[in-house]
Design a protein that fits this description.
Aspartate Aminotransferase, domain 2; seven-stranded mixed beta sheet; Aspartate Aminotransferase, domain 1; alpha/beta; 12 helices
């Protein structure tokens, strides 16, 4: 069958924009078993609670099979909304079930939040660098991006000026940030809230990695300190399974109603079966038994990557990396003379991949950074991969 060229198809402005999704390319690379992939931030399958999920699914289908296979309500199954509210409350963020909207993965949360807030040309504040999936979701609404000031400790609220006033929201990932791995201190979180009040800003707190701490729990959430003007995004992908496609938004019920109206037009509702399975796992306490094992895997592999960077990287004043205490990512800084986007093809030829830093900037104006994810890579392959990258960087120096 012969198809017409893409240029002959009457695409929308959004669909006819720049092609070549970074996420799509990285997912393709991650499927190549010969490549040591530090690129895609996939949870480790070694941490999936396969048996617990299988048992919960069997019980749900046995007891409530007709309901589990039927359409559901847009806001989410009541059992899961209640379970998420209890989970958030137990972590220090008081939450009621009516303050929870279930979504099909936290990527949908980002899409819906952008749609409910942003018209073309509206100003949106993002960290610099920021999560590339969020930038992609927001770009569909054609906002004007402006940067929140950051330093070596993450977002710096002291540097937020009157110029931030009038933005639709400030999107932040305060805990084990993607891509940097940094966590904003409690003092900075409190000051951020004060500045947001002064400037009339809504805060979108994205927290997919907060449960993946290694030795100590992270500071209080933004929403626990400022519930009225904060939307908190969470996900079960990193602590349970990304294949179940379950995320949630916590916030003002009136705003959640507007989000539910949009969601109804997008996918009607999040799958009933996976919601009921997840609700059972949360309510039974199996998540609490499961999380320490996940943290152990991530701590060991994160420590391994940090040790390998210290061992193999050239001793150059322009080379540094974040010393992470949780999450899935390490942010590597290289000298200005090295372009990590251009170097990517050489890395792939050497059977290693990473995320070039420019993908994590709204305007793609950074070429000296790499985002490194370690959780899906066994320790011996982390060692080989970092050694290979270090040798490549030495040649470029």
């Amino acid at each position: 069958m012969t198809y017409c060229e893409l240029s002959q198809i009457p695409l929308s402005t959004v669909a006819s924009g720049p092609s070549g999704s970074v996420l799509k390319k990285l997912l393709t690379l991650s499927a190549d078993a010969d490549i040591i992939s530090f690129a895609v931030g996939l949870p480790s399958p070694d941490g999936f609670p396969v048996q617990a999920v299988a048992q919960a699914a069997q019980e749900v289908l046995k007891k409530e099979g007709r309901r589990a296979l039927q359409y559901s309500v847009t806001e989410g199954e009541p059992e899961l909304r209640e379970a998420v509210a209890e989970f958030e409350t137990s972590r220090g963020t008081p939450t009621r079930p009516e303050e929870v909207q279930i979504v099909t993965g936290s990527q949908q949360a980002l899409d819906l939040v952008a749609r409910v807030f942003v018209d073309p040309g509206d100003r949106v504040l993002v960290e610099n660098p920021s999560y590339l999936g969020a930038l992609g979701a927001f770009k569909l609404c054609r906002p004007t991006f402006e940067f929140l000031p950051s330093d070596d400790e993450g977002l710096n609220p002291e540097a937020m000026t009157e110029a931030c006033r009038g933005a639709k929201f400030a999107y932040i990932m305060p805990t084990f940030n993607n891509p940097t791995g940094l966590t904003i201190s409690l003092e900075r979180r409190k000051r951020l809230i004060e500045k947001a009040d002064e400037l009339g800003l809504w805060i979108i707190e994205d927290d997919p990695y907060g449960e993946l701490w290694y030795e100590k729990k992270p500071p209080q959430t933004i929403r626990s300190l400022k519930p009225d003007n904060t939307l908190r995004l969470g996900t079960l992908s990193k602590i349970l399974s990304p294949g179940m496609r379950l995320g949630y938004i916590c916030g003002n019920p009136a705003l959640l109603d507007a989000i539910a109206e949009l969601k109804q037009s997008v996918d009607m509702h999040t799958p009933t079966l996976t919601q009921l399975v997840a609700a059972q796992l949360l309510k039974s306490g199996q998540i609490e038994e499961h999380l320490p094992r996940v943290r152990k895997i991530y701590r060991e592999r994160g420590t391994c990557m940090l040790e390998c960077l210290e061992k193999y990287m050239p001793k150059d004043s322009g080379i540094s990396w974040t010393k992470v205490e949780g999450g899935m990512f390490i942010w590597v800084t290289l000298p200005e003379s090295i372009d990590t986007t251009a170097m990517m093809s050489e890395a792939v030829a050497a059977k290693v991949s990473y995320v070039p830093g420019e993908a994590c900037y709204a305007f793609g104006d950074d070429h000296r950074h790499m985002r490194m994810s370690f959780v899906t890579v066994p320790e011996e392959r982390i060692d080989l991969g970092i050694k290979t990258l270090a040798e490549l960087i030495k040649r470029h120096l």
